[in-house]
Write a structure and sequence with these properties.
The protein is of the alpha/beta class and about 1000 residues long. Helices cover about 40% and strands about 15% of the residues. Helix 2 crosses helix 11, helix 3 packs across helix 11 and helix 27 crosses helix 28.
Length: about 1000
């Protein structure tokens, strides 16, 4: 039972506070007592190296939380040193740490009418977090209730002026924000261009040169131990004289990456040579004006203005400049576009300054030197079993959450005093949602359809309307935000704009009609109550990526995104994994009127093909309901833009989302997306063309230039009469030499490795037998063995071969029968790991992440691979189970759990799959698949263009304008 706030019913406070209404809880019953709790072991490994990167046993979670959710919460959010009494070990401790802090701050600051209201607030907040109805952003879970500074915001906007003091302070402030794992954005347009003069008479460096220093700083702090790469946004106005240099900055660096990669340098994400390329730690965006976009449409010239005087110092062709933006985005996905006049037309605080920049993911847009606290509601939690949407509960939860978010500003800490002051004066909040894509599919709405957009618009309108309604009510209790008085007219004007946009929504069915009716009432209250009380918050809503917290809530889709794919990768309690057809699909098919037998056949088809095309019995007019972000039926680029446009008028901020285009898209296609984004009223837009950052050859011009340079250099070389050539000397093995033969099995395929050594023990020869004698494969293995052996005898270090051949991925791959190398990505991966273990010293192979089972066991027990431990033998025994024993144990757990499972569900690999209208097709995942992104690769037959997680080695997948790892919850952004 959790500790609770002291409550005495009916005791009135001095100020009339909020009366909190119960939504889900029962009087006299704590939310923890209504669920079944269980203990789990959380063990996380890097699938590439096989090393355990995290282990905490006996953690406590509700039985309905997935393995993935409990793993990510345990590894990311539990505080305290592992192995100590201070370490959190239960979800109860985590939720109490946060909720009790919020409840106490609410009481201390006069938010509640009575102590009983404070207790109801505490219990409702606990219930909704416990049942994954919503989640705060990650900094809340990291910091609130701990001894660390109580930073609750994930998003920051900085400011920089045209002075060296301000520029150096920018570097410093960004450094502190990155150190804490958050992200920041800023606009560099105040800095003089390289075409303007300094007061001393010299020429200014320009903002792009200062970007170089900031980029190096961000990269250094990332490599110094941050949990993820630095997230930052750099914005430049389209009328800045250095705008062309800014536009092409990252595109030219991408050319360098390709050239260096082709020359043999390690240019992968996190590679040792990638740091030699600049500007890779920031997202770049051009801030375009209506004046510029009209000049593009009309083919007119456009003036670039001096920063100090505002005078036009150069005119350019608007269309040519727009084409350069589109071409650079086509080449490397940067820069994005932000629509300045649209952003500031919805600005509630124009008297306090313009909005010039955004956070790294482009959803938070507000004053300079400010921050935003985020939280997101899980939309699928409001869909009842009868497929109706619980509108009343949705509005009440939105009001509850926005109350908690505002309370957090009362006790929050901030990275700089300027940010703290602005945030306390304007109290910007960012309530949003996740699982929109899953909700649309479950209710039979296509993502790119009028019905889907109408439903999304109504939900977004109600969310922001409910938030501002509560904000106006809070203003009557604890006062409006400090900057409200000077901005009252503008703030009320924006509220009326939201209300007018709500009036223009055209509903198409019963569900969106009811939601819209609630939204209309909410906006009426917003305008009326706000005119009397003012508002507590300058901003209320954004649509964030919801990466890590999306996994915490067990969401199928993130933010505003459609479903990533129809077949998902799921982890099992027993330690295995499976692929499962999205369980929203059977529910959607049942709502569309299909019978159980038809549903079963369609689901089986999806499990096999990864898409719905030609699924037996599925009507073609229903295909669009199952369209996804990737795959055979992917949503068109303008489909994404239209969905963003449907929701944008109901958000204080913007939308974190990348519009994906196929590799075949043209520069003109990207231009159309950017133009339509402006016309449809978006605030920001980013595009990504598949494979634009990898695998693109140099252009003919580049190749020709390179060849010409080589020819010129060769012609200029002097003739050398005498050449001294140094050759390695072959050290032959003695006639009789010690050898060791190892039999092995990788993914069920058997082979033999014979390794021969010199008298001093140094490896000098290998023979690899794999395949039948006389077969092509056996011949290739013989030739490979001879080539490696000769290299070893000529002095090529074994560690060089280990570096090159470990982590190669091809079939056969999977489980091995070697206790020291339990998983191998290929035969080569296994062979050279085995050779490293047998012939390299501990320090060399440890640097490569290659350890024996005994060493890994010691590390788990003692924290060191080399310390002696009495229990190592026992631990090693558990590590040395044959691969066949692991599934057997999972099956035993499955059978035990199945006894208690109702007829309406299936239990697969110790994970209960609720069947709804028929269980989704479930099957063991292939050994080479480790995430949904890799499942999609399997179905598409080509590699997904996504980075590898630097923590656990899993291929990440898109989440808004960022990427998120399904293995450990790490993100590439700031959410």
């Amino acid at each position: 039972m959790s500790q609770t706030t002291n409550a005495r019913s009916g005791q009135r406070r001095k100020n009339a506070g909020l009366t909190i209404e119960r939504i889900y809880t029962t009087p006299g019953v704590h939310p923890y007592d209504e669920v079944t709790w269980e203990r789990r072991d959380v063990v996380q490994t890097n699938w590439k190296s096989g090393e355990t990167i995290f282990e905490q046993r006996g953690v406590e979670f509700p039985d309905f939380w997935s393995v993935n959710a409990s793993t990510i919460v345990t590894t990311k959010y539990f505080r305290g040193a592992l192995g100590t009494a201070e370490r959190e070990s239960s979800l109860k401790q985590l939720i109490d740490r946060v909720v009790l802090t919020y409840a106490k701050a609410g009481k201390d600051n006069g938010y509640f009418a009575t102590d009983e209201d404070a207790e109801i607030f505490e219990h409702e907040l606990t219930w909704t977090l416990l049942h994954q109805v919503f989640s705060f952003n990650s900094p809340v879970w990291f910091n609130v209730g701990t001894k660390a500074p109580q930073q609750v915001s994930a998003c920051f906007i900085l400011s920089v002026d045209d002075s060296m003091d301000s520029i150096l302070n920018w570097y410093r402030e960004e450094g502190f924000i990155f150190k804490g794992g958050s992200g920041a954005g800023l606009n560099l347009s105040r800095i003089r261009s390289s075409k303007e003069l300094l007061s001393s008479g010299g020429t200014a460096s320009g903002p792009v040169s200062f970007m170089r220093g900031a980029d190096a700083s961000a990269g250094t702090i990332k490599s110094g131990g941050a949990t993820r790469r630095a997230a930052k946004m750099v914005v430049l106005d389209v009328d800045h004289p250095d705008i062309e240099e800014f536009i092409e900055t990252k595109a030219r660096e991408e050319d360098k990456i390709r050239a260096l990669r082709d020359a043999g340098f390690d240019m992968d994400l996190g590679g040792k040579d990638i740091t030699s390329v600049q500007y890779q730690n920031a997202n770049n965006s051009v801030r375009v004006s209506d004046e510029f976009m009209r000049a593009v449409e009309e083919g007119k010239p456009f003036g670039l203005r001096a920063r100090g005087t505002g005078e036009i110092i150069e005119e350019v062709d608007a269309r040519e400049l727009f084409d350069k933006i589109n071409k650079a985005a086509w080449e490397c996905a940067d820069p994005g576009v932000q629509y300045d006049d649209t952003i500031n037309a919805w600005h509630t605080n124009p008297e306090s300054g313009r909005i010039t920049a955004s956070n790294p993911c482009s959803e938070y847009m507000s004053l300079d030197n400010s921050s935003c606290n985020l939280a997101s509601l899980n939309l699928l939690k409001f869909l009842r079993d009868d497929d109706t949407f619980d509108v009343a509960a949705f509005q009440k939860v939105a009001e509850l959450v926005i109350t908690a978010m505002d309370i957090s500003i009362c006790f929050a800490d901030f990275p700089t005093e300027a940010i703290g002051q602005t945030t306390r004066d304007y109290r910007q909040l960012g309530i949003g949602y996740a699982n929109l894509g899953a909700l649309l599919m479950a209710t039979g709405h296509g993502y790119d359809s009028d019905g889907g957009r109408a439903l999304a618009a109504a939900i977004t309108s109600l969310l922001t309307g409910a938030a501002y309604k509560r904000s106006a009510e809070l203003a009557g209790i604890v006062g409006p935000y400090n900057g409200y008085a000077r901005n009252a007219e503008a703030h009320q004007r924006v509220m009326r704009k939201h209300q007018a946009a709500n009036d223009e929504v055209r509903t198409l069915d019963t569900m969106d009609t009811e939601i819209h009716r609630y939204a209309t009432k909410a906006w009426k209250d917003v305008v009326e109550v706000g005119a009397k009380n003012g508002y507590r918050n300058a901003q209320a809503s954004v649509l964030a990526p919801t990466g890590t917290i999306g996994f915490m809530m067990d969401c199928d889709t993130t933010g505003i995104e459609p479903d990533f794919s129809l077949v998902k990768f799921k982890k099992l309690v027993g330690g295995g994994s499976m692929q499962i057809v999205n369980q929203t699909i059977p529910r959607a098919l049942k709502k569309l009127g299909y019978q159980d037998e038809q549903i079963e056949a369609i689901v089986a088809h999806i499990a096999e093909k990864g898409h719905v095309i030609d699924a037996p019995g599925l009507k073609p007019e229903h295909y669009e309901i199952f369209d996804t972000a990737m795959g055979a039926r992917s949503i068109s680029p303008l489909g994404h833009v239209r969905m963003m446009a449907a929701c944008q008028p109901f958000l204080s901020g913007a939308i974190s989302k990348t519009v994906n285009l196929p590799e075949t898209a043209t520069v003109e296609d990207i231009a159309d997306v950017h133009l339509q984004g402006w016309k449809l009223g978006l605030k920001a837009l980013a595009v990504y063309r598949d494979n634009c950052k990898v695998g693109q050859p140099l252009s003919d011009g580049g190749s020709t230039a390179k060849d010409a340079a080589k020819d010129a250099a060769a012609a200029a070389e002097p003739v050398v009469e005498k050449v001294i050539e140094y050759r390695p000397v072959r050290r032959r093995l003695p006639k009789r030499r010690p050898s060791q033969t190892t039999s092995f099995a990788v993914g069920g395929a058997e082979g033999y490795l014979t390794a021969s050594a010199y008298d001093d023990g140094q490896l000098g020869e290998i023979f690899l037998k794999f395949g039948k004698q006389g077969s092509t494969l056996a011949g290739v293995m013989d030739a490979f063995s001879i080539a490696v052996s000769i290299g070893l005898q000529y002095g090529v270090p074994l560690e060089t071969y280990v570096e090159k051949f470990t982590n190669l991925r091809f079939e056969p791959a999977g489980m091995t029968d070697d206790p020291d190398v339990r998983m191998a990505q290929s035969i080569m991966d296994y062979v050279f790991r085995r050779l490293a273990l047998d012939h390299l010293d501990f320090d060399t192979r440890s640097f490569m992440g290659i350890h024996t089972a005994a060493e890994r066991a010691r590390q788990l027990e003692t924290g060191s691979y080399t310390e002696q431990d009495d229990d190592v033998a026992e631990e090693l025994e558990s590590y040395s189970q044959s691969p066949a024993q692991v599934p057997a144990k999972a099956e035993e757990k499955t059978e035990e759990k199945a006894e208690d499972t109702s007829a309406a569900s299936e239990t697969v690999g110790a994970v209960q799959i609720t069947s709804g209208s028929g269980a989704a097709d479930v099957r063991p995942a292939d050994v080479e698949v480790h995430s949904s992104a890799e499942l999609m690769e399997k179905f598409q037959g080509k590699a997904a263009d996504a980075p590898i997680c630097m923590t656990c080695g899993t291929k990440m997948r898109p989440a808004g304008s960022c990427y998120v790892c399904e293995g450990c919850g790490s993100t590439s952004g700031c959410s």
